[in-house]
Amino acid sequence: MEIGYIKPRKITEEMEESYIDYAMSVIVSRALPDVRDGLKPVHRRILYSMHEMGLSSGAKHRKSAAIVGNCLGRYHPHGDIAVYDALVRMAQYFSLRYPLIDGQGNFGSMDGDRAAAQRYTEAKMTKIAEEMLKDIEKDTVNWTDNYDATRKEPTVLPANIPNLLLNGSMGIAVGMATNIPPHNLGEVADALSWLIDHPKGTSVDLMRFIKGPDFPTGGEIYNQKEIIQAYTTGKGKIITRAKAEIVERAKDKFQIVITEIPYQVNKASLVKRIAELVKAKTLPDIKNIRDESDRQGLRIAIDLKKDSFPQKVLNRLFKLTDLEKPFYLNMLALVDGIQPRVLTIKEVLDYFLRHRKVVITRRTKYDLKKTQERIHILKGLKIALEHINEVIKTIKASRDKIAAHKNLIKKFKLTPRQAEAILEMKLQTLAGLERKKIIDELKEKLKLETNLKAILASPKKVLGIIKKDLEELKLKYGDPRKTRVFARPLGKLTTEDLIEEKDTVIVLTKGGYIKRLDPSFYHAQGRGGIGIIGSFTRDGDIVEHFVLANTLDNLLFFTDRGKVYGVKAYEIPQSTRTSRGQAIVNFVEIRPQEKVTSIFAYRGKTTARYLVMATKNGIIKKTKVAHFDTVRRSGLIAIKLKGEDRLSWVKPSHGLDEILLVTAFGKAIRFKETDIRSMGRATAGVMGIRLGRDDEAIAMDIIEKLKSKNQKSKIKGLKLLVLSENGFSKKTELKKYKVQRRGGKGLITAKISSKTGQIVYAKVLAPQEETQDLLVISQKGQIIRTPLKNISLQGRATQGVKVMRLKSGDKATSAICI
Fold first, then answer.
1. What is the pLDDT of residues 335-387, one digit of tens each?
2. pTM of the model
3. Which residues face 703 on adjacent strands?
4. Cα 271 to Cα 286: distance, rounded to the nearest angstrom
5. What tens digit of pLDDT does each residue of 79-129 get?
6. Distances (CA, A) of 319 to 22, 130, 261, 323, 498
7. Fewest CB atoms within 10 A around its CB: which of 219, 265, 442, 818?
8. Which fold has domain 243-322?
9. Active site positions, annotated
10. Domain 17-185: which CATH number of 3.90.199.10, 2.30.36.70, 3.40.50.410, 3.10.150.10
C-alpha cells in the first residue's frame, strides 16, 4: 500500500470518536425504549415481524423459531438468543402487566426457570399487541431501511396504547439505565383523558389518577408522598412488599401465607433464603416452609412453632428477605427516537399524546386521500351510468381499448383514471340495485370527506378521537389494580419491630443485679402458702424491686439521689428464675453511690400528664411527663432533694386525681392532686405527709378522678390493700379515708405490732383489679402468688390476715398485683 493512503491521526481522537459511536449505538439501537411506543428496537421488530407473518390474536400459533428466524433475517442481525429472550419476556404474565405475546409451551416461571428452546414453543400476538400495530399500513409512522437496505421497517409503532407506562421497561446503556415500572391501564387512560382537558395540569395533579406502579405480581407499595416525589422528578425509591397473611390453623398454631411477592423477585431463591435463615437459627420460630404454588396462583406457606409471635416473625422476614424490596424508579426514555431524557409522569403522557396526534393526523390524511380517490372514481362511474347508452356506443365504435379510453376522455370530459374504471366496469353494474349502490357510496364518501377535512382543520377533534380511543381501550382491556397502595410511609424496621410484645417481670436486687422473667414462672397458690424461690441470692444480696412491664415499655430507673435513667425493657436479658442476672451498670450509667428506689414502666404516648414523685420523708412533687421523654442511659435530674432525704416512688397522674401516702407505722393520708403545683425536673417538692419520729413513707398511690373539676371522684368500690413485713395483709374501703389537706399527719390504716411488723406495701385497688393475684417477694427471694379475692375486707385499725408464711429471719420486702 502506498504511503498516500495512510492518514495519520491521534489515538485519543480515534478512541473518543469510536467510543461515542458505540455508546450512541447502544443507547439508540438497543438498550433504551422510545417514549412513544415504549419499545426497544428488538421488541418493535419482533412485533412487526409477527404482523407481517399474519400472527394476529385470531391466528394459529406458530413456532417461536420461525418468528425468531424471520425477525433475525429481515430486521435484527444481533443473534437469535437476544431475539428469543425478548420474545419470551413479552409472553410472561409475571414480567409484563399486559403481555404482548400469547405463548404456548414453557415460557419460564417465577422460580427463574428458563423457557424451553425456541423449537418447542409457539407464539402469536395478543389482542392488546394488535393495538400497537393498528393503522400501521396507513402511513402513520416513518420508515427506514433495514440493516441491509433490502426492506423497510418502522422507526416507531403507531401504539394506540401508552405501552411505556403499561408494561414498563428495563435497560442498561452506556453510562445510563432505565427502570420504569408497569401501571394500570384504567388509571393511565383516565390520566390521559384528564390531561387532554387540562393541558396545563401538573404531575401532582395526574397522581390523583395514577396511584403508583401496578405490578403483574401484585404486592403492596408504601408512602404515597415518596411515590409522588418519584413521579414528579422522574427518579425515586418505591418500597414494595409481599402480600402476607397470618392464618390460625388450630388453637395457638399459626401460619404465614404469602400469596403475592414483590416484582422481579425469584420465588425459588426467596424460599431458599428463608430456609437458610431457619437453618442458621436466625428465624428459630419457623417450623416448616412449603411452596404450594399451582395453576391457581402463588402460595408460600410458613408454619410457625406453637410459642412464636407471628407478627414479629413476619417483620423479621420483611427485614431479612426480599419480601420487602425497594424499586428504584428511573424514567429514562428516548425522545424523538434519539435523545435520552429522564422524564416526569406528565412529560411521558405529553409525549404519548403528541405521538397519537401525529398518528391520527397522518391516518386522517391517508384516509382523506383514499376517500378522495374513491370519490373521483365514483363520480366517473356516475357519469357513465347517466349516459350508459352513449358510453356503450362509444366503446363499440372504438377500434381497440386504447382508442376507447381516448374517446371516453374526449367525449365525456373524464380523467384517465375515470375512463379506465368505466372500461373495467362489469355488466352487472348496470342492474338497478348496483346503480343505487354506487350513488349511495358516493354520498357516503362525500360525507366522509367532509368529516376528515373537519378533523384535519380542528386539533380539538383530533384530541376528541384520542379520548374516545382511550375510553374504548379502558372498556376492552381495563382491569382492577393488582398492587395495593398505602398512603402511609413504611418506616424502616427497628429493633422494636422484631421484639415479641408480651408481659414480663423486671427484678432488681439490692446489690444492683437486674433480670427479666416470664410471669408464667409463678403459679398461683393458696393463701398462706410458702411460695417458690424467685431469685437466687448470693453474698447476702436480696430482691428489692419487682415490676410488671411489657417488653416494649420504656423503663425509667429513679434513684435515691433524685436522678432518672432510661432503657427499653427488652434490653434487659431474659433469664431463668434462679439466675443472678446482670449488674445494672451494664444498662444505665448509674454511679456507685446511687441506689435504684423506683422503676416506672410506660409505653410511648401515655394518657398521663404528670409523674408524681414521693420521698421517704413524705415530700411530694409532680412534673409533666413530657420532661422525661428524652431520658437516656446517662440520666437526668428528676427531683432536687434536701438533706438525707431519698426519692422512693414515681407514678403517673392526670392532673385532677387524688394522692394517697402510706407510712411504715400504719398512717395514711389522702389529698387532692391540685394541692400540688406542677414543677420542673430540677426542683424540690412540697410536704405531703407530716411524719412521726422514726417513721417514713413506704407507699404512694394515685386515685384517678374524672377530668372535670366540678365532678367528684368515683371512689365507690375502691379499696386500699396493705401488706406488712411479716406476711399480714388486708383490704379496707377507701371511703373510710376522708380527703384531708396536704401536709397533715393522716389517719390510721393498720394496727402495727411485733406480730405484723411494719407496713412494706400498699396499693389502691379498683373493683376489676380484685380478680388479679398478689405476688409477694421476700428478702431471701421467696415468692408467693395468691388471689386478691382471698384477702379479707377489714376496717382501718386492724392488722389483717396471714397471706405468706416466712422462714425464720426472712421478711416480705415488696409485692405487685398481676
1. 988 888 999 999 999 999 999 999 999 999 999 999 999 999 999 888 888 88
2. 0.70
3. 658
4. 12
5. 899 999 999 999 999 999 999 999 999 999 999 999 999 999 999 999 999
6. 41, 43, 14, 8, 9
7. 818
8. Gyrase A; domain 2 (3.30.1360)
9. 120
10. 3.90.199.10
